[in-house]
Design a protein that fits this description.
By secondary structure, this protein is mostly helical. The chain is built from 6 helices and no strands. Helix 2 runs antiparallel to helix 3.
């Protein structure tokens, strides 16, 4: 974990992992419950670390759109709410589960696309390499702290959704 990584590259890597987990959750050949557990942990840890470490730092840079950063936080909340709704469905693979999964996938893929086009492109163009590397280090440290605290457990997700984090 000590290697220096650009925060944009790290975030994009997480985004691709989330997309892969969404595909696994849709596949009847996969352990969809396990994919959901992995997805929940990554989504919560990733969003919390972005909001704690990355978004506040990006707001300080000229030409990084603060309204887009704030909109990203709103979209995190929407994704977290959709995640909780899916986790509360009792039977994996039921019609209700599939419906909630599609709501989650829609919210998350919309956010990933928008964040990559606006916030991350702005960061890549306007934040110096050294600062992006520092942000990568603190992002990874904060994300790991959340993962170790079992942030993907339904009680933790519920606490994040209701704002008790």
């Amino acid at each position: 974990m000590s290697e220096a990584r650009d925060v944009v590259a790290v975030i994009l890597e997480d985004h691709r992992t989330m997309e892969g987990l969404l595909r696994r959750m849709r596949s009847v050949e996969e352990d969809r419950g396990a994919a959901l557990r992995d997805f929940a942990a990554l989504l919560i840890a990733h969003g919390e670390a972005e909001e704690a470490e990355v978004y506040p730092a990006l707001k300080r840079f000229r030409n990084v759109d603060n309204e887009e950063v704030e909109h990203g936080e709103e979209e995190h909340h929407e994704g977290n709410e959709a995640l909780l709704a899916l986790m509360e469905v009792e039977e994996v693979g039921s019609d209700e589960w599939d419906e909630k999964l599609e709501e989650l996938a829609t919210a998350v893929t919309h956010h990933l696309d928008e964040e990559e086009r606006t916030i991350l492109n702005g960061a890549r163009e306007n934040v110096p390499d050294k600062r992006r590397t520092e942000l990568g280090r603190v992002f990874l440290r904060d994300r790991e702290k959340h993962l170790k605290a079992d942030c993907g457990h339904i009680d933790s997700v519920r606490a994040v959704v209701v704002g008790a984090h």
